[in-house]
Amino acid sequence: MLVFLLRRLAQSVFVLIAMMIVVFFGVYMIGNPVDILISPDATPAEIDETMARFGFDQPVYIQFLKFIGNALQGDLGRSFVHGEPAVQLILSYMPATLELAVMGLLFSVLIGVPLGVYAGYKADRWQGRAIMTGSIFGFSLPNFWVGMLLILIFAVELQWLPSTGRGETVEVLGLRLSIFTADGLQHMLLPALTLALYKASLVTRLARAGTQEALVQDYVKFARAKGLSETRILVVHVLKNIMIPIITVLGLELGSMIAFAVVTETVFAWPGMGKLLIDSILTLDRPVIVSYLMLTVIIFIVINFTVDVIYTLLDPRVRVKGGTA
Amino acid sequence: MSVLDVRDLQTHFFTDAGVVKAVDGVSFTLGEGEVLGLVGESGSGKSVTGFSILRLVDPPGRVVGGQILFRGQDLAQLSDREMRGLRGNRIAMIFQDPMMTLNPVLRIETQMVEAVRAHERVSAAAARDRAVKALAKVGIPSPEERLEAYPHQFSGGMRQRVAIAIALLNGPDLIVADEPTTALDVTIQSQILAEVQELARETGTALIWITHDLAVVAGLADRISVMYAGRIVESGPTDAVLTAPGHPYTEGLLGSIPGHGRRGERLTQIPGMAPDMTRLPEGCAFAPRCPRTSDTCRITAPGITEIGPGRGLRCHHPSLAEEGTA
Amino acid sequence: MSAPETTLAAPPAVPAGDKWRRINMAAGLGVAASLAVLLTADGAALLPARVVLLAGLVMLAAGLLRGRERKFFSGPSAYVATASLFLLAVLAIFATEISPQNPYDLRQLDIMDGRQPPGSTNFDGSMTYHLGTDEQGRDILSGILYGLRVSLSVSIFATLAAMAIGVVVGIYAAWAGGRTDAILMRIVDFQLSFPSILVALMLMAAFGRGLDKIVIALIIVQWAYYARTVRGNALSEARKEYIDAARGLGLPAWRIVFGHLLPNCIPPLIVISTVQVANTIVLESSLSFLGVGVPITQPSLGLLIANGYGYMLSGQYWMSMYPGVALLAIVASINMVGDRLRDTLNPRLSR
What we know:
The complex is a heterotrimer of chains A (325), B (326) and C (351). Chain A is an all-alpha fold and 325 residues long. In chain A, 78% of the residues lie in helices and 2% in strands. Chain A is built from 13 helices and two strands. In chain A, helix 10 packs parallel to helix 11 and helix 11 packs antiparallel against helix 12. Residues 320-325 of chain A have low confidence and may be disordered. In chain B, strand 1 and strand 2 form a beta hairpin. Chain B is globular. The model of chain B is unreliable at 321-326 (pLDDT under 50). Chain B has a domain at 4-90 and 206-323: Rossmann fold (3-Layer(aba) Sandwich), CATH 3.40.50.300. Chain B has helices at 46-53, 80-86, 98-101, 108-117, 124-137, 143-146, 156-168, 186-203, 214-218, 238-243, 248-255, 295-299, and strands at residues 4-15, 18-30, 35-39, 61-70, 73-74, 91-94, 174-178, 206-211, 223-228, 231-237, 305-308, 311-313. With 351 residues, chain C is mostly helical. Chain C has a two-stranded antiparallel ribbon with strand order 1-2. In chain C, a hairpin with a 6-residue loop joins strand 1 and strand 2 (128-129). Chain C is globular. Residues 1-16 and 347-351 of chain C have low confidence and may be disordered. The chains are: A mainly alpha (325), B alpha/beta (326), C mainly alpha (351). At the A-C interface, helix 1, helix 6, helix 7, helix 10 and helix 11 of A face helix 9, helix 12, helix 13 and helix 14 of C.
């Protein structure tokens, strides 16, 4: 298992380097950042001066090496708009996105798994079919539109929940989080639900397929022969077996959750790094865009790595193989 | 009163290819502590009979006729809930493949304790205690520790012992064992056979031992019923059936077992293949493979005839003991 | 393998009767020709071209389902989805003819008619805004019809182009094998390790708004997916006997690839691409919603929703609500049809 993990680590480093190259040539080479940095009516001398100040007058490979060198020290430049170091800026927005993504993931499991298990149990009945049709709607619904409808219904019409923002936060382990305050939770409910919808449909389908597969296994028949109730068979025997693939998939989906949070955060004016990214794109704040990309890559790598470890812990069969190796 | 009385059981499978009469009029009775060997090739309906008794036939299969009386009570009349109360409690089952019957992601303890607590309001500790005793009874060393283990940490033979221990947990009146030793090594097979025999005798549990191997039940069963194409073609006390088989199919089964005192004799085999259950011949299902087949066999299926004390036979041309030497 | 065997092993016949093959060819040509006319000409040629386009599409769909109608139409949802997809396709194709107003022609818009609720009329009563107007006085119904056309054509075009690129790369990788294969697949893996919305967002940030740009971005985020699928199919297909047989016959490589490998890799792609069109529509609308998609002058459904978003909180729901309903309808019908197609054409992929 150690060999396996080391290999994954090497792969990750490769991805990181590749990403640095892509980001550098993608974001830094397309267009001239100086156009945005200085006013259009600047004199050629002023332009040259700015070019020199940012090092744009140097050959590409020197610029690239500098970029890499700075990046390795955690320096990806300063935000043009906020004036802060970009990495720090993003890190300060990150907890909001992370808690939203985690909450969304939690919702998608809480909604998707019961529905999917039930749909698998009643696969040939109308209940199962209805859930499957519903799941098609679930991943057909455009995320941002759902968010708007939820705002319209729960915030504007019923006025049960706040429409935008993050609400009250508390500092936990140095991170500003909303999950631990009632007000924060209220603010988080709608965006997390919106974010969860697509994944909930995915989980429903996964859980249904897994349940159908598990139900024809001998161990389920044996459990029935033991006189167990159907509820216990579904909740203990089937669920425990299907959770392993679901958690694997979901873990990998945490990354895409963070990416999709861009849309949700925009709808709900949730002050996370997704909204920061959109604002930065609209204002062409390149250091922030670059930092966002690099940090997301790192998050993805960490997630993939963690999923492997969790997977190993969850499945006793894998665990033992690893232990003896 | 008999423990189990199966009368004219019919279990059919409604498939796209047609109705398969997997069990077609099977009857037998089983007394207290009695061991019945239910013998037949794969596809003869013996396992389906076993599952029918527990009402665990999977769709598209369904019990469509007959009665299964357990201590005089018709199981078909019970609600799902009442039936669940019997399963694993009064009627237990052991499955064929021990590698598949235990849930791979649950510890043995969980799987045993839940079997106790599904039927009795006892504390987890008491249930665990009973599990330890059951494991010890089936010969699992250091049962306390083994409870913590997952199924994959056991060998096939050990897993089957665990399954047997689970079947014994609630002291059932009847155990249906569906080829429990087929998937195991020969040495372990005989160990487990000996142990089960002893346990059944000790506890007075009636046992239905389903197998394709006459040799397995020879030393175990009190009575033998031979199934072919969904029907019992011959039944009777073990000794009588083994020494003087009446049905050509039983003879065929016996002829294909190498045995004591038969060194040098040719092993015979039954010609042909197990029948296609969707297209059974009109008369006797065994006719196409039978050495004694006649026109009668191809037109009408034989009924059950009594050929001795407790012996039934379905054959137009039985080989009677007197003629055996001819 | 011995010689007689090689000659016997023929490639599996592409299951199309001669008549149907000709009909499909004709339909395909008709679709291509009518698209060419629609993109270049204007005036009187447009309407007939649209009719030909619709007829061609219907014929192609019929050819796809030929002999499997019963399996496809099992259950009411298949009928509903197909009918709704057909209806929406008609609306999108004939948007110009049907809509009361050309929403992209700013001269037709009157800012005085802005933000009118559904059912109101313009000042001289000559026109009723059945679904209301947006802040520029654009008839929402017309906006939806034109937006539907933009969303559909952008997504379908991007999906087909991505599929074409993916097929070429995938088959090339499978055929070349070795280092070429390894490098191409590393690139594919690398790209697929990032969510498509993130990649598209970055591309659009670099490109700026525009119909052509969003199409390019949507192609770039999709091609790798097809390349991986096609490579897998091609590899398993290449191991089969008939390819050996064709090689044994001394056929040139291009004939084996185009005559044998390609036709057998396509069918699974039809199902995937159907669902992919739906995903692409959602992706396009999300990008447009975020303000990095289609230009403001040619709003797609996503941009219409975004434009109305600001007014939603003040209760002027219609500007965002109805375009959203249209978006949901088109995406859900495509997904449902795709779901049925998967069960019908490719039982192996179901579950």
